[in-house]
Design goal:
The chain is an alpha/beta fold. The protein starts with a helix and ends in a 10-residue tail after the last helix. The protein is built from 16 helices and 19 strands. The radius of gyration is 32 Å and the shape is elongated. The strands form four sheets. Strands 8, 12, 13, 14, 15, 16, 17, 18 and 19 form a nine-stranded mixed β-sheet that branches. Helix 6 crosses helix 7. Strand 4 and strand 5 form a beta hairpin.
Length: about 500
């Protein structure tokens, strides 16, 4: 006798791979779909009625009872109540592979550079599981960027996550382009999120250039695309970088910008029904930022992802919520100064306001001391900058400031660099050591001249006054002291 009860039990737990529902209503940027019991993150296809509208891809971003909340990935024009929605139970994935190098794709992995579709791609989860922290490899190896100010004062390590904080128009795109061309990485993955369409073409052809593009994968999602597509582009870029890291390669990930990602995630969260919290940002914004940042890093037995996230600071306010959250989650931050940019100082890195938390682990003690000397000189010059501008600074009152004033042009020349110039670490280290040695020599000279000025001038002919116990031929200093009249009550 055949027992079919185990098979019926198995069938009871099986779920269909494709489900169908119908659009009931529109809620802002999202649609409420009845009868579609799909998990969050599932991909769906919305089929508008009529032959004039093609199916629209979407994603489940939430649910309300038995209804799913769906956002369109490519705009919702033409969608009406009663339209059919087909859901795919497969988890959201990005297509990755080595053939993506040198290509420009969108958030769905489709090429937008006019070339044929890449071959030999395979799906990879857009939202992978959290990495076991004990499997992460500590940051112990230097990551050269070719930028003197970064390599000497804010040294990067492989697997580090760094933020570039900048206002609009201060030069962060130029800095990213220089790093993409000059860095010591096997592959560069660049995510351009929320950019103007004109800027994407200019960055790819002009800033990145042919040399940078030849080893890069560019994932672009412009500001006129749906917020869900912008969020997906960021996760797709991370999936591509993880593919190369798992293959043992060292990857440089450049994400521009974390702020526009937060804006897109805010639109998604509010459309899904989340309550606004800090400055209108729902809680999911800060949770998604932490998950995204933690996907970068080094893993034992594999390669590394060194990530640079740009943060567009609203009104140059470093204390606004997104900048403050990013600064606490990252392994350091580079602050670009508008004042330096206005003076034509490129890259406009404010060294004193910037920090790399892993720098000490990847440099030698001698390099650490040289960095400390240069930072001390920069800080001393900033302390007396206002006094110098009005001519009120008295030279000799601060030895560090005196040295910093004398070497100001040399220091600025060291920290300045054109976008086309690449400075090898050997050259940067030599220039830094030479600058610090010159600073120490100048400090010694100033100290010597200050000590000589502090001693009163010797009289040409010391009076022959002999005190009790003094030798007939006392030293010159004793003769000088003998010229001072004795105090009252003391025998001569």
């Amino acid at each position: 006798m055949i027992h079919l009860s185990p098979h019926f039990e198995l069938l009871r737990h099986l779920e269909p791979r494709r489900l169908a529902g119908t659009v009931r209503s529109c809620r802002g940027l999202a649609f409420v779909v009845d009868g579609l019991r799909m998990p969050i993150g599932a991909t769906v296809s919305i089929e508008p009625r009529g032959e004039t509208h093609a199916p629209v891809m979407g994603e489940v971003v939430g649910f309300d009872g038995g209804s799913a909340i769906v956002m369109a990935l490519e705009g919702g024009h033409g969608i009406a109540s009663g339209d059919r929605v087909i859901g795919d139970a497969m988890p959201a994935a990005a297509l990755v592979g080595d053939s993506l190098v040198g290509r420009v794709i969108d958030g769905l992995g489709r090429p937008i550079d006019g070339a044929p579709a890449p071959a030999k791609l395979r799906p990879r989860a857009l939202h992978p599981r959290t990495i076991n922290p004990l499997l992460r490899r500590p940051v112990r190896e230097r990551m050269e960027t070719g930028i003197r100010a970064v390599d000497s004062m804010l040294t990067l390590g492989r697997g580090q996550r760094l933020g570039i904080f900048s206002g609009a128009g201060v030069g962060k795109s130029l800095l990213l382009g220089s790093m993409a061309r000059h860095c010591a990485a096997d592959v560069v993955v660049l995510a351009l999120v929320g950019e103007r369409g004109r800027e994407v073409r200019e960055f790819v052809d002009g800033v990145l250039g042919a040399d940078g593009r030849s080893r890069s994968v560019v994932v672009a999602s412009t500001g006129d695309e749906s917020p869900l597509m912008r969020v997906r582009a960021c996760h797709a870029a991370l999936a591509v970088a993880e593919h190369f890291r798992d293959a043992g390669r060292h990857v440089l990930l450049l994400l521009d910008s974390l702020t526009r990602l937060a804006h897109a995630q805010r639109q998604v969260g509010l459309s899904a029904g989340e309550p606004p919290a800090t400055r209108g940002y729902p809680p999911s914004v800060f949770a998604s930022m932490a998950k995204l940042v933690e996907r970068a890093g080094s893993i034992e037995g594999r390669g590394s992802i060194t990530a640079l996230f740009t943060v567009l600071v609203d009104g140059d306010d470093l204390a606004e919520p997104i900048a403050d959250t990013a600064r606490s989650a990252l392994d350091g931050h580079v602050v670009l100064s508008r004042a330096l940019a206005s003076k034509g100082h490129h890259p406009a890195i404010d060294v004193l306001e910037s920090v790399s938390r892993t720098a000490d682990a990847v440099v030698s003690p001698a390099e650490r001391e040289q960095r400390r000397v240069l930072r001390r000189l920069l800080a001393a010059h900033r302390d007396v900058e206002e006094l110098l501008s009005i001519g009120a600074y008295a030279r000799g009152s601060n030895p560090d400031a005196d040295v910093a004033i004398a070497l100001r042009e040399r220091i600025d020349s060291f920290l300045r660099q054109s976008t086309e110039e690449r400075s090898a670490w050997s050259t940067t280290a030599s220039m830094l050591a030479e600058l610090c040695a010159e600073a120490e020599t100048l400090r010694a000279k100033l100290a010597s001249s200050a000590g000589a000025a502090a001693v009163p001038a010797m009289p040409r002919a010391a009076p022959q006054i002999r005190r009790q116990g003094a030798a007939p031929h006392a030293p010159a200093a004793a003769a000088h002291l003998a010229a001072v009249p004795p105090r009252e009550g003391v025998a001569a």
